[in-house]
Amino acid sequence: MRAVVYSEYGVTPVLTQVDDPVCPADGVVIAVGATGVCRSDWHAWKGHDPVPLPHIGGHEFAGAVTRAGSEVTRWRAGDRVTVPFACGCGRCEYCLAGDAQVCPRQTQPGFTGPGSFAEFVAVHAADANLVALPSSVDFVTAACLGCRFATAFRAVTAHGRVRAGDWLAVHGCGGVGLSAVLIGAALGARVVAVDVSAAALGRARELGAAAAVDAGTGDTGDTGDTGDTGDLAAVIGEVTGGGAHVSIDALGSPAVAAASVRCLRRRGRHIQVGLLPEGSVPLPMDLVIARELEIYGSHGMAARDYPAMMRLVADGTLRPGLLVGEVIGLEDAGRALAAMDGPGAMAGMTIVGLSQAATSGPE
Ligand SMILES: [Zn+2]
Ligand SMILES: [Zn+2]
């Protein structure tokens, strides 16, 4: 098959002929229909997260099953599917409870093994990890769902329990933040977007944010705004009439995490989505007690929880396609990956489209 391969960190990946993946007994081989280019792929390519070399990246994909292993009971060739970016082992207590997102023996195509910048990709524990695509959801749209969008959906709905009319603060309007803005607004929440970039805030407004706050100046863009303060919590408190019901740190920094907790109204919920590579982070636990706040970490979303999201995509309530920037061919994937070294979120997601998924398969 053709695949986009790199043998050294930081050297532009090239389209190469490689062996087709072997089908695991408990897994499937999927003909990739579309696959997203994600900043996590870029981090792996740069060597920030070591991967086995030579390596094929790509973890946000959708396609058609071409082969199913002998132990697979739920899937067969021809099924249109996607998978979460972190796949569970399918056997541990967490997986059996449907919580593969916290499986201690996770595998991740594109990180722990070959990924989806290729014509075919293998997925282990298929019965636990595959998600059926409704016929109305095309591969490009589905490729948007597996990583940032599903992560944002779980943060907003499962942990945030956002209801129509609630104020949802989203700190950091990159890929996952803008997904949270889109999802919150589509579910009827009043979203206040927070970022230091005017372009990011503008994009958040286009996707449905009711208010936007410049995290650097406190400026809300309203006429007569004095843009006075470094006290972000006070500004958000003003905008929301007492604080956000739910607040998400979609960026991942100690200051942002603390600001997200501080901007909550009483009994509010903070969800940490942005990764914190620095390690442990101090939070204002005095406020957590006094205001009875809830603190959650959110890490992806298990296959079990996809159908609820998929229904909202299929009926048009959620429109992840709005997050797509450009669709490119597999031959351009290596260049697109290398070009992620810069502020690219405003341009939208880059999706690699392959047309072969419906028909061909490995011999
Ligand atoms: Zn990703
Ligand atoms: Zn497991």
The gist of it:
The chain is of the alpha/beta class. The protein has twelve helices and 16 strands.
Structural class: alpha/beta
The string of secondary-structure elements, in order, is EEEHEEEHEHEHHEHEHEHEHEHEHEHE
- The total of helices stands at 12
Number of strands: 16
Low-confidence stretches: 358-363
Overall pLDDT score = 92
Report on the architecture of this protein:
- The chain has 363 residues and is an alpha/beta fold.
- Helix content is 26%, strand content 23%.
- It is built from twelve helices and 16 strands.
- The chain has helices at residues 39-46, 93-96, 126-129, 139-143, 145-159, 175-186, 198-206, 232-240, 254-262, 285-290, 306-314, 333-338; strands spanning 2-6, 14-17, 28-37, 55-56, 60-68, 80-82, 120-123, 131-132, 167-171, 190-195, 211-214, 244-249, 264-272, 294-297, 324-328, 349-353.
- The strands form three sheets. Strands 3, 5, 6, 7, 8, 15 and 16 form a seven-stranded mixed β-sheet that branches.
- β15, α12 and β16 form a beta-alpha-beta unit.
- α5 crosses α6.
- It is globular.
- The protein starts with a strand and ends in a 10-residue tail after the last strand.
- The model is unreliable at 358-363 (pLDDT under 50).
- It binds zinc ion (2 copies).
- One zinc ion is lined by residues 88-89, 91-92, 94-95, 100, 103, 105.
Note the main attributes of this structure.
12 helices; disordered C terminus; six-stranded parallel beta sheet; seven-stranded mixed beta sheet; binds zinc ion; alpha/beta; 26% helix; 363 residues
